[in-house]
Design goal:
By secondary structure, the protein is of the alpha/beta class. The chain has a single domain, classed as TIM Barrel (Alpha-Beta Barrel). The longest helix has 20 residues. The N and C termini lie far apart (64 Å). The structure holds zinc ion.
């Protein structure tokens, strides 16, 4: 039995149809959220009232990042992941999982250097290299945010904005780099979360299993207080 191929005419027809779809998609006017970012460092969650944004730094870091993804999926919370370029190169498949789950990506520099010691040109190269590493893992990934390591911004906010990334700060940091126990982390989240806060936690840079446990426990509590989980503001 001969193999059946679509006729050349049919293939041309579907190619023309595809081009028409792409052309009409690009003709749609850009929504307001597509306005360019500003150099202002945002630390506020979108929306009014009891809103909070969860952000996770220094990954990808299997297995903690993968466990965290399970927790966020179970509770249907969308978060921001600030990715360390060297780790992206090491674990591209974890970055793909983060993106596939609908989370939002943030550039956290290539080597987690203190950017206050860098020239503008060095910072630009670093940020571009990091985005390239992320897009090697996830082609055409949207990377709407940038966060400077240690919050040591130097000249990076202006450069990030030029590269169409909004500098992303935080209003509350649970200081989980020296894990004090999941109970203590839950208590810090309880005590310190305020409406509109962008919260900084870590899924990378060490054993982050306590952070993952704390996130799993605090989400239902916050929902019980009518909190909604939103993304950080897109513009400063
Ligand atoms: Zn960091």
């Amino acid at each position: 039995m001969p193999l059946s191929f679509p006729s050349l005419t049919a293939m041309r027809r579907s190619a023309v149809a595809l081009i028409a779809v792409v052309a009409s998609a690009t003709a749609i006017p850009a929504p307001a959220s597509a306005e360019p970012p500003t150099p202002t460092i945002v630390d506020t969650a979108r929306g009014a009232g009891n809103v909070v944004s969860f952000t996770f730094d220094d990954g990808p870091n299997p297995p903690d990042t993968l466990r965290l993804l399970q927790v966020l999926r179970r509770h249907q919370v969308r978060a921001v992941f600030c990715l360390w370029g060297d780790h992206v190169r090491q674990y591209p498949e974890v970055v793909r999982r983060i993106a596939a789950d609908g989370h939002v990506l943030c550039n956290h520099s290539m080597r987690h250097d203190d950017l206050t010691t860098k020239t503008a040109e060095e910072i630009r190269t670093d940020l571009l290299d990091t985005n390239a590493a992320i897009r090697e893992a996830v082609p055409y990934a949207s990377i709407p945010y940038f966060r400077a390591p240690y919050g040591a911004w130097g000249e990076s906010p202006q450069i990030a904005a030029e590269l169409r990334m909004q500098p992303l700060g935080w209003r509350m940091d649970i200081a989980d780099w020296e894990p004090p126990g999941a109970n203590a982390l839950v208590q810090r989240l309880r005590d310190r979360i305020t409406p509109g806060a962008v919260v900084l936690m870590h899924d990378g840079g060490g054993d982050r299993s306590q952070t993952v446990q704390a996130v799993n426990r605090i989400i239902p509590e916050l929902r019980g207080q009518q909190y909604r989980f939103t993304l950080p503001e897109r513009r400063g």
